[in-house]
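Table S2 (continued). Query chain:
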Amino acid sequence: MKLYDPRSAEETKRTALLRGEVPIAVYGLGKMGLPLAAVYADVTRNVRGVDVDAEIVETINGGRSPFDHEPGLGELVAETVADGALRATTDSESAAREAAVHVIIVPTLVTEDSEPDLSTVRAVVSDIATGIDAGDLVVVESTVPPRTCSDVVAPLIREESDLDEGDFGVAFCPERTKSGRALEDIRGSYPKVVGGINAESTNAAAAIYEELTDNEVVTVSDATTAEAVKLFEGVYRDVNIALVNELARFVDETGIDVLEAIDVANDTPYVNLHDPGAGVGGHCIPYYPYFLIEHFETLGPLMRTAREVNDSMPSFTVDKLLEGLNAADLRIGDATIAVLGVTYYPGIPETRHTPAKPIVERLVGQGADVYAVDPVMEDLSEFEGAIPLTVEELYDIDPDAVVLVTAHEPFQEIAWDEFDDLVIIDGRDAIDLDTDRHSLYTIGSGWNQNATQS
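Corresponding output:
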């Protein structure tokens, strides 16, 4: 059964989809792709998941999830694999020949020159082209620069298959999920945006997602608009965070608590200032602005400046640490420093673009004894020069200073009164001291009364 078929009645296509008569291939079984494939399988009963990693494929076919930080994912994978609704393979061309709907959710990163790298997307589209048939639908969920579906995906399929324009559909339906709540988000935390390269592509994709999500399906003018929606969401957050990070730097000169001012300003319906912090990490926000400013000729000075501001926050964090150490008559080369949290987000074992990395690198480079503490990461080898430490072992090393980069929940249980005088830099407004012995600098609030900094 083909969903990209204007001759078939909508109810007929819906029934076929829910009965498993529409074979679906999901390309990319990573931390966002596997939850999507599992939800597709739960609803449509006929999904082949594709990934280049044979170990991930073997794990999934064994009824297990390789990602243990997604609530409910392990159970859903076990259930859908057991009843045959979900199967995994490394053979993308075979999956392409079987499928009538092809869903792409592979990463789009940037090159060393900050240009969007579409090589993985192109490779998947080429594999799809080897097996695509007339009436098939290609759905792109990977975040891509605007015009990718119309100028890259559709032309590449035409070039590498026997199909003409109009024989197949292409739609962009951006993922709107966050690690740690992927299933919840896929099933309907937010409206699902759908835009196709033509009206039939939009209608076919919308028909699928109306079954997958409990939320509204919002159809937009075309695929390019849908691509832009996803980027605009990320760029807004990046620029907003850059603004508050810049405002946070006025703390010492103005003598005000910027966090308090932000909180009160947000009482009005037309203000939604985010939170300042030690830096912006992850797979999304640090990269999306470059999908516009490096991919098109139009200048984007505000977006570029926002990136520079946010990328400067790890350095600002270390500068404040040095300020605190100097006030305590401690040389950085003689200091023992614990960095709390190396992942980019609390509770999630991912380190892409984490601000902890440049912080560790600079501290190690200046001769400090650096310990890295992260309760959700098993392997800290990428943080060269830092000694791994558990939260419990923190009490044994007698640190001179602590830098909180990521506010993991276990850090809330640290008994700060058991330490001698510390210099503490709180990069997430997450430390509430029950002792007045330590010098605490909170980004956005400044030094506490115990500190002597001017």
